[in-house]
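Entry 14. Ran structure prediction on the chain below.
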Amino acid sequence: MLIPRERNIVAFATLFLACAATASAQSTDDRRPLFDGRTLEGWKHVGPGRFVVEDGMLRTEGGMGLLWYAGEKLGDCIIHVEYKTGTERSNSGVYVRIAEEPTDPWYAVHNGFEVQIADGGKPERRTGSIYTFAPAEKQPGKSLEWNTLEITLKGNRISTEINGTPVADFDASELRPESEKKIGEGDPSRGPRPEAGYIGLQNHDENSIVYFREVSVRPLPATLK
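Output, structure tokens:
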């Protein structure tokens, strides 16, 4: 027979697990898919290469190109992406805060932020980093396996998590309109970006294969508003 203290512990554990399960279900229920798993409806592509729909997934092919979601601009929200690299050297990225409709992939580079997908390399160019703006502090992603990337957008702040582990955080309010500084050739300009913009997925080159099986968005939880 359980004594009162043991009953309390069991009751607390049961309540904790129930709340966790409810929160997880609510998080999933709140997600609104931007990719329907069957078509590219709502999406447009610019630049070389393409994305193909294969077995319910998006797969990169060639590049450098950009598949961007034309349905709406996104402000404060959490973007949920499930991805898998096809090789250990595969390269891709998720663009956010793209200021206007891109007519070529380089517009997103200089007028948006890229959350990098590329295992290895310097921290500021590694998976989960805000490319050249904020380094990946950890490497919780797994090459050749499915990973979950979440990008939280709140005002000027962008933060990333991979498989539930915080990876990078950047306050874009420090960027200035007059700044044209670049880290290296092909790197993004250092000017400010808007607090709402389009999102996109990069197909980087013919040797990079990356799969996406979910791209969705959900509101910020009340604790972050």
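The first helix runs from residue 4 to 30. Will compare against last week's run tomorrow.
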